[in-house]
Amino acid sequence: MKKWEENVRRVVPYTPGEQPDFADMIKLNTNENPYPPAPGVERAMRAMQSEPLRLYPAPGADSLVEGLANYYNLKKDQVFVGVGSDDVLAMAFLTFFNSDRPILFPDITYSFYDVWADLFRIPYECQPLNERFEITKEDYFKENGGIVFPNPNAPTGEELSLSAVEEIIAHNQDVVVIVDEAYVDFGAQTAVGLIEKYDNLLVVQTFSKSRSLAGLRIGYAFGSSRLIKYLNDAKYSFNSYTMNRPSLSMGAAALEDEAYFRETVDKIVATRERTKKELAQMGFLFGDSKANFLFATHPDYPAKKLFEALREKHIFVRYFAKPRIDNYLRITIGTDAQMDALIEFLKEYTGK
Ligand code: PMP
């Protein structure tokens, strides 16, 4: 090791799902939306001109913040935006998890949380999900330096009831509680209504899933104006211009088509429920996912083998070689035709 390497901030990075590029592939591995963004996004893109790009974007991302505030009936100073919810969450970890006490999150959850904690030197303690992969709210009633969990949880898809979410917040009013609602639009209840009651609650959402805009990188958070001010102070001390001009105008356009949003979300939910029935008939076991993915296991067929067999057919799903979940597959809900291809393959594989 070179001398200079002694002082390098070393981290084991998060591993994103692969982004293969085959013409014939069925991509069900990174929870993207199979439908295109709202038509207004395309119109906004075509209307864009390159000339304004010589100017920096608005540092406060005002058009998008205003669009979100109007949509969710909030004040502008209760809204923060960032480059995907990963950016928002990372900034929130940096800003709010600054204590010697460990932050708490589930043992099976979004695998970026421990990476940010390590990167920012935040102590953490994982709380085991129960055998049905549910969060036990009482695990979060002990002393801690902050709390973060997704709702629905990832990669399990399990929803924690809004009343249980509120109980966790109510027991933790001396720390910041982050509820990561990346998948909430697919059937879970949002905690956004609680931000008026609890000034220590941050609710984080994204345009990557329900609004089909993973490629644009837009995430946002809602919280008390005090909380949002602290987040913005940290952001302006790091990078003032996180949101680029094209993202600001296309993002605002995405919020304007409620009918399209409802239609695509409803289609994904209907496909998810149909897929649950098909998988159950083949003997797969899974929880009642409220997200745009299923987390499934089969008593007779090892997940890793199945993952590899699917991969050979260019059907990509996600497999995590991690304790407790190494016999599960996380399957993103695609179009009906994509799910039919998956189901057909699985029927043949299982002989059912
Ligand atoms: N939270 C959870 C639970 C996720 O699964 C993801 C997607 N990887 C994110 C946040 C981040 O999504 P994005 O940065 O695209 O908004």
Summarize the structure.
This protein is an alpha/beta fold and 352 residues long. The protein has helices at 39-47, 62-72, 84-96, 113-119, 162-170, 225-236, 245-254, 258-281, 303-312, 336-350; strands at 26-27, 79-82, 103-106, 124-127, 147-150, 177-180, 201-206, 219-222, 285-286, 293-297, 315-316, 318-319, 329-332.
Description:
- The protein is of the alpha/beta class and 352 residues long.
- It is built from ten helices and 13 strands.
- Strands 2-8-7-6-5 form a five-stranded mixed beta sheet, with helices on both faces.
- A hairpin with a 6-residue loop joins strand 9 and strand 10.
- Helix 3 packs across helix 6.
- It binds 4'-deoxy-4'-aminopyridoxal-5'-phosphate.
